[in-house]
Design a protein that fits this description.
0% strand; mainly alpha; single chain
Length: 179
């Protein structure tokens, strides 16, 4: 018979923390790499190849599909592999860290502010996971409205940003190379 000691409890907690750290590391790294490839390689390539309207439409549809797949995976694993639920808890932070208090202040500004920030800064998948009520529950009618709004605003913003970047590069290339 083995009697649990304080050392056993500490090693168990350390193992849990290491497992959680590994889960977040893999989740955030994978999501970051995929997001980088999608946003900075695929998106501008499609906008360049098909133009602002057709390319923007193609990428909005693709973004819709990818975000729904990510949401399905996120909900089916029932694991917070991006740390979104942990970030939600920052809203209630009341500690000594100035940075922590600043983030808490920002998160308490309300859903419309968070909606715009996440829509422009990240993507509709993260926006809806953060703003929906309930964890791993799929999408309610309210959630679908938020998701579609984020999808349209975020993709309009990113399509315009890519188009402007491509236009600026073309303009610069013509000026430098003289073609």
């Amino acid at each position: 018979m083995h009697i649990k000691t304080t050392e056993d409890n500490l090693s168990g907690k350390a193992g849990n923390h290491l497992g959680r750290l590994a889960e977040l590391s893999i989740g955030l790294s994978s999501f970051g790499l995929f997001g980088f490839l999608f946003s900075y390689l695929l998106y501008p390539s499609v906008i360049y190849a098909f133009g602002i309207f057709k390319g923007g439409g193609i990428m909005t549809i693709l973004s819709f599909i990818v975000c729904l797949i990510l949401l399905k995976v996120y909900d089916s694993t029932k694991r917070d592999w991006l740390g979104i639920e942990a970030v939600k808890s920052l809203k209630d932070y009341d500690g000594r860290s100035k940075l922590g208090r600043l983030w808490a202040w920002f998160f308490r500004k309300g859903d419309p502010v968070i909606f715009l920030f996440l829509t422009i800064r990240v993507d509709p998948f993260v926006t809806i996971v953060y703003l929906r009520r309930g964890n791993y529950t799929g999408l309610s009618r309210r959630d679908w409205t938020i998701f579609m709004g984020s999808l349209i605003i975020g993709n309009a913003y990113w399509t315009l940003a890519c188009y402007m970047g491509i236009t600026l590069l073309e303009w610069g290339w013509k000026r430098i190379v003289g073609l």
